[in-house]
């Protein structure tokens, strides 16, 4: 039987995991709202970041939490390069081509990782993996708590950047009206490149944090990107706030269902919820 | 009599005769198996083309109907023992499911539809893994339809697949030439304008989705009977969805011959790579496949057939070619 304590435990775990999901879905939202690129390679780059974090820890003994930031830093110029060399060809040709392109990019990246490191489970085990904070009968994994706090902090920094800096203002201007932004002297190519870099950086942080909590392998990305898309559709594709809320709901939902029955049902229920939302409000929870 | 026919028609007739006598020329199992794989990919690519190319609604989890068709056929045979006659059940089920799904998901525009259908494939795989009625992770095991030599069996399936592909291509051809086809092309160009002109947009979209799903169901059903064994991870594999999309884009989305050409080329390439590179390093063959598709998307977005048509028009007249070329991409 499922006790109340287990349920509360599951909800807390869900919220903590939801933070990491939220960070990744915000990245997905950002690139779509600004650059009209639905980044299908998001999860693939997240797994790449997991691997970078893993190797930094195994080879250089760098703490995975620091390693996450390093790998995010590596992915940022990668994103700019990909936008500058490949994705810029699709600017102004509708959202379908970049979507398809990144889809196959994800396939290529996944198999590159399979070639390099093999398609088997890997996990990062640090001395403080098992550390936890106990309140009454509920124990909270310290690692998940740290991952959650880090995700929230990064999301907050991002919100400040988007609100107050020139780059953020230009991004919002492009998202609202591309032609008008260009008339005011915003360079589309530069903003697109920076946005894609930022997107991959967020994917990198999410993937790095995820690698500390769960084991991972390259082919996980196909299931993962589907899940992220479900979250983003649920919350409304162009609304970062919506995907934040949706990610939290999804985290709690999958975690609670994982306690009640098999964890796999979590994905099924999530998808059914998304379908119901689409029936009632096709633009998503927070969509316009 | 021959004088009255165009070059294209003669070519098609010759090709059909060649395909008909193919099993009697090459008395080799390997070539027949390869041809069956080719037919499968052609059928999948040209049915994906209806939804992804002609009306421009790329459905990224389309392999789900392949899996569904395979499962319905296999379960019908298992519980009633009707053999090839189980294919109509596959068609009915995929039609029903795709209409229900299409009604919900096709309210979304273009790419949003792709995102919503993205993980249908995965979800159905989970459903079939979790329900005990369908055999769960063990899958379904069938007996061969008739007990005879493997070569004769392979030949029978060669003809079954060939009939399926020919019927499908004929239907798609008729669809493109019909009034409905015009409506479908109008939706791709401008959905709002099409709606204003009186095209029943929603009905046509659901029709195209259901038609394309039904073809996938037929191929899936044939696959189940041909292979005699199915389980969720193989028939709901995401690679099935990926390969049909890749084939369509290589050949040229939205044209009739495009997916056929694309499917033949990609099948040749991927089989070649699988037996040469794939056995050396795991994943290398798929990596190269993906890299080729990426190059096609970057440098040849209209596909091989689309480029051929374009070059043909360029030859026709420099002036016309130039003006047509400017708006082509």
Descriptors:
heterodimer; A: 288 residues; mainly alpha; two-stranded antiparallel sheet; B: two-stranded antiparallel ribbon; disordered C terminus
The termini of chain A sit apart by 42 Å
Characterize the main sheet of chain A.
2 strands, antiparallel
* Greatest interface by residues involved: A-B, 44 and 43 residues
Mean pLDDT of chain B: 87
Physical arrangement of strands within the biggest beta sheet of chain A: 1-2
Using only CA atoms, what is the Rg of chain B?
20 Å
Helical residues, percent of chain B: over 70%
Low-confidence stretches of chain B: 319-329
Number of helices of chain B: 16
Q: How far from one another are the termini of chain B?
A: 41 Å
Tally of helical segments of chain A: 11
Helices, strands, pairings?
The complex is a heterodimer of chains A (288) and B (329).
Chain A: H1 4-35, H2 42-60, H3 64-85, H4 96-117, E1 132-135, E2 138-141, H5 142-164, H6 166-176, H7 178-183, H8 188-213, H9 220-235, H10 240-260, H11 264-280
Antiparallel strand pairs in A: 1-2
Chain B: H1 7-25, H2 29-54, H3 63-80, H4 87-105, H5 110-117, H6 120-130, E1 140-141, H7 150-177, H8 179-189, H9 191-196, H10 201-227, E2 229-230, H11 232-235, H12 238-251, H13 257-276, H14 284-299, H15 303-316, H16 318-326
Antiparallel strand pairs in B: 1-2
Task: Give an overview of the whole structure.
- The complex is a heterodimer of chains A (288) and B (329).
- With 288 residues, chain A is mostly helical.
- Chain A has helices at residues 4-35, 42-60, 64-85, 96-117, 142-164, 166-176, 178-183, 188-213, 220-235, 240-260, 264-280; strands at residues 132-135, 138-141.
- The longest helix of chain A has 32 residues, at 4-35.
- Chain B is an all-alpha fold and 329 residues long.
- The longest helix of chain B is centred in the middle third of the chain and has 28 residues, at 150-177.
- In chain B, 76% of the residues lie in helices and 1% in strands.
